[in-house]
Amino acid sequence: MGLGNNKLTYRLPAEWEKHEATWIGWPHNKSDWPGKFTPIIWVYCEIVKKISEGEKVRIIVEDTEHKKKAIRALKDSNAKLSNLEFFTVKTDRGWTRDSGPIFVKSSKSNKVELINFKFNAWAKYENYKFDAQLPKFISKKLDLKIKQAVYKTSHVVLEGGSIDSNGSGVLLTTEECLLDPKVQVRNKNFTKKDYEKIFLDYLGIQKVIWLGKGIVGDDTHGHVDDLCRFVSPNKVLLVQEDNPSDENYKLLKENKERLQSESFLDNSKLEVIYLPMPSPVIFKNQRLPASYANFYISNEFVLVPTFNDIKDKKALGILSEVFTDRKVVGIHSVDLVWGLGTLHCLTHEQPI
Hints:
Elements: E1 10-11, E2 19-25, H1 37-51, E3 56-61, H2 64-76, E4 84-88, H3 96-99, E5 102-106, E6 112-116, H4 121-124, H5 134-142, E7 146-148, E8 150-151, E9 154-155, E10 164-165, E11 170-174, H6 175-179, H7 192-203, E12 207-211, E13 228-232, E14 235-240, H8 249-260, E15 271-276, E16 282-283, E17 286-287, E18 296-297, E19 301-306, H9 312-322, E20 327-332, H10 343-346, E21 347-351
Parallel strand pairs: 2-3, 3-4, 6-7, 11-12, 14-15, 19-20
Antiparallel strand pairs: 1-5, 2-21, 5-6, 8-9, 10-11, 13-14, 16-17, 18-19
């Protein structure tokens, strides 16, 4: 749906635009990876090591001892410590994509500002009171202007993983995440028009592309960053399942059909490139949200979750053809996805 050419206050940059830094929370909550916490540290080291080659990595730690442990592991992994900055603040969990602020550019000054949406742990968990304070902490530490996202007197609930921007006023999201009236309800009784007004006012979005459901096993109930991602202003990558008996098959086909009918405000067509889905990743009888769409675009690298799957190579090949200006690398995520999220969920870009 197009929203016209209202005067915009903000612009939500695309992830491939130049970053000043990437934020990431050093892991500390063992309940996120029960029984698998130890290998997670080394996965984080690989993530930080790659990202820090092209930008600062701002690492959130709990206290002095937590920081020492992080530095020790990063040194052992030969990470570039000169490009790392540590910020000490209590957090509940480490999903910085969702608990952190949304970084926008002011249309007036072109400076980076923060939008503080409310975080309530995906309307599912009780432990989020520290995480909810993260946007204000970052604003204060970096001396960046912050604005609370309010609509009809309510502080709007929104997670960074539920939206994806092309940097030019178009946004992807899902009905399952934002509009389900019964399951993990973020903002009670909000309609598409309500969200579109919020996206316009706080993110400078003039067109919202609504997809249907997210992938099976997604703890967030439909985040778009496991499903479909912009890779240029007019191009998206969408995951598809080839096996008709797989639970994801029909819902991903429905999203494919929705995108085929989409066009931009100037009537140009959206280009859709298809990514495979890995074979189901199941641990302790639970299907996990394994998806190649949960990649992260840093200044130098595109980090792609891999799953010891025959389709890993195909996914990396497709992404290498799309991102010819960056090095595309796989990050082993079989352990990581046990936390019900992977690379994009853990990271949050701060644009220049």
